[in-house]
Amino acid sequence: MADRELRWMRLDNAAKIYPAAKRRNWNNLFRLSATLRDPVDPLVLQSALDVTVRRFPSIAVRIRRGMFWYYLEELAQAPKIEREQSYPLAHRSFSELRRCAFRVLYYENRIAVEFFHALTDGNGGLVFLKTLTAEYITQKYGVSIANTDGVLDRSEEPDERELVDSFLQNEGPVSKSRREETAYLLPGTREWDGYLNLTTGILDVQEVLALAKRYQVSLTTLMVSVMMMSILAIQNRHVPNRRQQKPVKVLVPVNLRKFFDSSTLRNFVLYVTPGIDPKMGDYTLEEVLKSVHHQMGVELTQKQMSARITVNVRSEKSWALKIVPLFLKNVAMKLVYNMVGEKKSCIAFSNLGAAALPVEMQSYVDRLDFVLGAQAVCPNNCGALTYGDHLIINFTRSIEEPELEREFFTRLRRLGLSVTIESNQR
Fold it and tell me: Taking every pair of C-alpha atoms in the chain, what is the biggest distance, in angstroms?
């Protein structure tokens, strides 16, 4: 990257909360990984990373502190890859993020990239992983791979459209209130050393799609509804008095590139939080499916998303906020995050959908995974994607008890779905 001037960029609108909300034992990381047919050659992987980072000046960065805002500063060279020796998404100190805000790990056949969420969302991260893996396969096997399906041409200069803050470009005329009810907090015993448990369910995607079609809903609606039924059952066990129960809500990230003309590789995701109120009585799966389907239908429109963008952008543009020094902004944003940031949902279910690869890569890549880190307060999180014939669902948790995963996958099996379970539980 020494042949051109290094860039710096302001954090995008969604990213500004992440450095402020960090704490000693938590920061917002997520992971994308590719499992290959052969063991990873670390020398080739390092060479592939050296080439790939030149194409991603908004991801190959470190976090820097300014007087009024944090910002991204492009790295002069790629970081050193690391052999994975710990659990997924092991905590990174902020001093590490100041040196490099992502890391590339390898273990046996797996290439994994872990991103600080201030850099990009799962969609941008997947483009980076695909491009890195394509460069690795090209160097390792001499295969010529088409620049399609999210694989970028490493010989090209970065496209300026990939670097824009698409939130600022899509501010609308009307803003929407952020006010939402507080949701149920799943209970559990915190892992004393910060260990992150990972439980993976592998399903036949055609079976899942057939079941969703039978209920006349999308795959995401089906999974979110089963998640709600699982959390309802857990709350009934732990809080038997219905009058004391709280709403069961699932945060579902929404890829805004589907609603607005954007090629950005930075964050461009908002969310919806469909929910049900257990105080109203018992629910059947059919009732929850119908409710979630209609709630998602109302919220998932360009106008609704524009109104959500607008309220965030107007807050950022506030003159009073602009002139406040960063240390005071951090105090205020951390306070707001602690008060409401994770209280509007029980868990996130982030589905990246069907991940396609160029045909030349497919015989070299056996599997793709998407893993969200556990949240600061809410102990569970869930990421999913489809690759080939399989829907792969990854649960993370920062507590000892696998109550939610057990309930969720048991319910899927009762619905007639085949589920293979993997876990790193110690």
Answer: 66
In terms of residue numbers, what domain contains 37?
Answer: 8-167
* Cα 121 from Cα 266, distance rounded (Å): 7
242-272: pLDDT as tens digits: 999 999 999 999 999 999 999 999 999 999 9
CB proximity list for 33: less than 8 A, separation 6 or greater:
110, 111, 112, 113, 129, 368, 369, 371
Number of domains in the chain: 2
* 185 within domain boundaries: no
- The torsion region of residue 258 among left (phi > 0), alpha (psi -120 to 50) and beta comes to alpha
**Within a domain: 176:** no
Cα distances (angstroms) measured from residue 406 to each of 45, 98, 322, 365, 418: 36, 38, 47, 29, 14
Residue 150 φ then ψ, to 5°? 90, 5
Tracing tokens 């669902």 back to the chain, one arrives at 393
Asked whether the predicted pLDDT for residue 209 surpasses 60, the reply is yes
Average pLDDT value for the chain: 93
The 3-class secondary structure across 116-136, one letter per residue, is: ECCCCCHHHHHHHHHHHHHHH
User: What average pLDDT does range 288-310 have in this prediction?
Assistant: 96
- Domain membership of residue 378 (yes or no) is yes
Task: Give just the sign of the alpha carbon dihedral 26, 29, 30, 33.
Answer: negative
| Phi and psi, residue 255, nearest 5° | -75, 105
In a domain, 408, yes or no: yes
**Cα–Cα dist 155/256, whole Å:** 28
Same domain for 144 and 226 = no
Residue 300 and residue 293 in contact, taking contact as beta carbons nearer than 8 Å: no
Both structure tokens of 137: 């396969």
| C-alpha pair distances (Å), 165 with each of 94, 168, 250, 401 | 23, 6, 27, 40
Per-residue three-class SS string for 171-238: CCCCCCCCCCCCCCCCCCCECCCCCCEEEEEEEEHHHHHHHHHHHCCCHHHHHHHHHHHHHHHHHHHH
Q: Model pTM?
A: 0.95
Report d(CA 319, CA 273) in Å as an integer: 30
